[in-house]
Amino acid sequence: MSTATQQIEELANTEYKYGFVTDVEQDIVPVGLNEGTVRLISGKKGEPDWMLEWRLKSFRAWLKMTEPNWQNVHHPPIDYQGTSYYAAPSEKKKLNSLDEVDPEIRAAFDKLGIPLNEQKLLSNVAVDAVFDSVSVATTFRGKLAEMGIIFCSFSDAVKDHPDLVKQYMGSVVPHMDNYFAALNSAVFTDGSFVYIPKGVRCPMELSTYFRINAKNTGQFERTLIIADEGAYVSYLEGCTAPMRDENQLHAAVVELVAHTDATIKYSTVQNWYPGDKNGKGGIYNFVTKRGICKGARSKITWTQVETGSAITWKYPSCILLGDDSVGEFYSVAVTNNYQQADTGTKMIHLGKNTRSTIVSKGISAGKGQNTYRGAVKIGKNATNARNYSQCDSLLLGDRCGAHTFPYLEIKNSTAKVEHEASTSKIGEDQMFYCEQRGISKEDAINMIVNGFCKDVFRELPMEFAVEAQKLLGVSLEGSVG
Amino acid sequence: MLDVKNLKVRVADKEILRGITLSVKAGEVHAIMGPNGSGKSTFARALAGHPGYEVTDGTVTYQGRDLLDMDPDERAREGVFMAFQYPVEIPGVNNAYFLKAALNAKRKHHGLEELDAMDFMALMTEKAKILDVDEKMLQRSVNEGFSGGEKKRNEIFHMAVLEPTLAVLDETDSGLDIDALRIVSQGVNAMRSPDRSFIVVTHYQRLLNYIVPDFVHVLSDGLLVRSGGRELALELEEKGYGWLETAAAGART
Predict the structure, then answer these.
(1) What is the pLDDT of residues B154-197, one digit of tens each?
(2) R_g of chain A computed on alpha carbons
(3) Contact A308, A273 (CB under 8 A)
(4) Given CB atoms, is B152 within the 8 Å cutoff of chain A?
(5) Does the structure show a pLDDT above 90 at A423?
């Protein structure tokens, strides 16, 4: 092993910063999954019958499905009966203001740098905080409501805006879309709901922060964002979890609907606990994210920075139905130690003059395995569709791997599809060049990696981009030489 | 300033330098010349601490300290600069940003306050003017897509900003046209001072018309076979390197 590789290994060993556990009294349903569990969850949330029916329909579909095995990740079988499907801080009384949030939970979010106190919010970001299975606080709700914007927990939306939920839930990701989506549809506990009315430009970033705290629980959140005609919204999602020896399951569903001339920007910084350096513990992150550009000239942009989780399985996708609609996917995925990521996107061109851009940056260190899997489909009516894909992999050390699986399916001869791919190693020469200028190893790695990710970071909202750069530094700390 | 004694360096199991002894005082300019494969670049890279170059014997004392005991980045912060023969591209990293990080790492090391963006820009603009560096080059990624000449000029620009105590130029003249050569040389000459030393590694005497050395050393087959004043360079130009083979063969026995 060269010295550079050894240094890479050394650098890769920093502690996960968000691994603390919050001690709050929890209401956790017993482990196991059957129709009774589904009814119990629905009952605890006081849901209407139509919601329960939808859950049961999903659950029955799930029972007949089998776990997918085509992805390039390896893990012991998941014990779906060994997980608890609902955990909530036990204080049940309705909160009248944010000040009533349990101080312990508030402290947990403070520690994560997510102050729930509106006065303390310096940045222009409204936050919905989800702690284990339930939403604990949504800030700036009132101010947004004045503009007709709905930003609330999914549970509240089911109660307060049933028509919108009924109309859109499952319209992009059907209840039996895939194994994990079906599971989520049956047992999802909370998440965020956003509706931007016609012609409204949401004046602040909307953000949801997900935190898994309880032991042996899964988190199954569901997010639904609707941008009506001409509306604009930028939405951020962040997530962390305590360090646990056992693997925890996270199976989320996100649905985006963009009507005519609407734009949705969806940014994620995913930092679930990745497991320790021997590969013990960590979150299994099986997520279905999909958006539909329903109307003409609508646009959906997915930007993701994936640094956490033991296993990541997600393909934020765009269905480009409206003519002249645009889909974009910008991704940085980091795998270190024993992390595995199989991630990418699907761009499904159905309308005329639809355009899509894919920029994927995979970084592998330690024994991490990083797979880009992307599909570009051009339907037979999608004249003049265009796609540009760029997939770059960066290897740190010689025990990690990068894999690229692009799929193309083109049924219209006017399509233009470009694909570029590269794999590079942080070379000894690059490192030496930086060091020769007086820059330390750690800073050099950070600099080279951030340079590599620049095309993606510039798509992130300002505050998030800074956060993402730091996170990348922490994730790769100790990993290069 | 720099005291090299019996330096032996191995690259991938092959002994390239077989015992170099050289002393450089503050303010001096030493030229190291020699045919291809004689070990000139190896000498430069070993001084800078390239991990691929293994020192098997000898000592290098720099400003009274054991240079070989320092990591490459520490050497740099202590004032050792090497202008690369083949400058490395770092995609996505802005040249100015890179240089600011480098300069501030050095300043911090010496207990000086780090320069803020404004002060740094002022410094850059000043240095860019001296070296006739296009300011656009500062905003591009480090060496990415630079022509051969631009890369070399960028190296000298880095040197001008970092103000090293010992500058090692590794075949900076190769790939430069005559105008670029003149500008680069002017930059180097402007930096000559009583407390700064240069080691100029070159294959051709041409560079030494512009950067006039105090001493010239001839390297052949891993050994310094001749040392002298600048007239030695002229002699080499006249005779070529052929006559050295005999000298080196003699030294080997």
Answers:
(1) 999 999 999 999 999 999 888 788 888 888 898 889 999 999 99
(2) 22
(3) yes
(4) no
(5) no
Angle, alpha carbons B44-B47-B49 (nearest 5°): 110
Sorting pLDDT into bands at 50, 70 and 90, what band is A184? Answer: very high
pLDDT score for A9: 42
**Would the pLDDT of A454 be above 80?**
yes
Q: Around Cβ A429, how many Cβ atoms within 10 Å? A: 17
- Estimate to the nearest angstrom the gap between the alpha carbon of A331 and the chain centroid: 11
Report chain B's C-alpha Rg in angstroms. Answer: 18
* Candidate from A4, A439, A455 with C-beta closest to B102: A439
Please write the tens of the pLDDT for every residue from B17-61. 999 999 999 999 999 998 888 999 999 999 999 998 999 999 999
B166 touches chain A (CB under 8 A): no
Q: How far apart are CA B138 and CA B118, in angstroms?
A: 15
User: Which chain B residue lies closest to A455 (C-alpha atoms)?
Assistant: B92
Residues ≥6 apart with Cβ < 8 Å to B246: none
Of A3, A4, A451, the CB nearest to B141: A451
Percent of the residues in chain A that have a pLDDT greater than 70, as a whole number: 76
Q: Within chain A, how many helices (H) and strands (E) appear? A: 11, 23
pLDDT at A13: 44
Report the alpha-carbon distance of residue A247 to residue A267 in Å, rounded.
25
CB A394 within 8 A of CB A425: yes
Which chain B residue is nearest to residue A427, measuring alpha carbons?
Answer: B88
Q: Which residue does chain B place closest to A5, by CA atoms?
A: B51
Q: CB-based contact (8 Å) between B157 and chain A?
A: no
Closest CA to A475 of A270, A242, A238, A252: A270
Nearest Cα neighbor of A177 from A35, A284, A61 is A61
Mean pLDDT throughout A272-290?
Answer: 82
A386, A417 in Cβ contact below 8 A?
yes
Percent of residues, chain B, with pLDDT higher than 70: 96
Report whether B38 contacts B220 (CB < 8 A): yes
Q: Are A368 and A398 in contact (CB under 8 A)?
A: no
State yes or no: pLDDT of B7 exceeds 80.
Answer: yes
pLDDT (0 to 100) of residue A107: 67
Residue B81 with chain A: CB contacts under 8 Å: 436
Query: At a CB cut-off of 8 Å and minimum separation 6, what does A330 contact?
Result: A301, A302, A303, A304, A359, A360, A455, A456, A459
How far is Cα A77 from Cα A63, in angstroms, rounded to an integer? 16
Q: What is the dihedral of CA A175, A178, A184, A187, to 10 degrees?
A: 70
| Chain B contact present for A64, CB below 8 A | no
Which of A429, A436, A452 faces B92 most closely, judged by CB atoms?
A: A452
Residue indicated by tokens 């095995």: A69
Q: What digits encode the pLDDT tens for the residues A127-158?
A: 666 666 566 566 677 778 889 999 888 888 99
Q: By three-state DSSP, how is residue A337 classified?
A: coil
Count of other CB atoms within 10 angstroms of residue A160 = 12
Closest residue, chain B, to A445 (C-alpha) = B90
For A440, which of B73, B81, B84 is closest by C-beta distance? B73
CA–CA–CA angle A440, A444, A449 (5° rounding): 155
Instruction: Report how far Cα B27 is from the mean position of its chain's Cα atoms.
Output: 15
Q: Please tell me the predicted confidence (pLDDT) of residue A23.
A: 62
Neighbours of A181 (CB within 10 A): 29
pLDDT of residue A217: 61
Q: Is the pTM of this model over 0.80?
A: no
Phi (first) and psi of residue A198, to 5 degrees: -50, 130
Query: Quick one: pLDDT at residue A242?
Result: 58
- Nearest CA-CA partner of A135 in A175, A108, A101, A84: A101
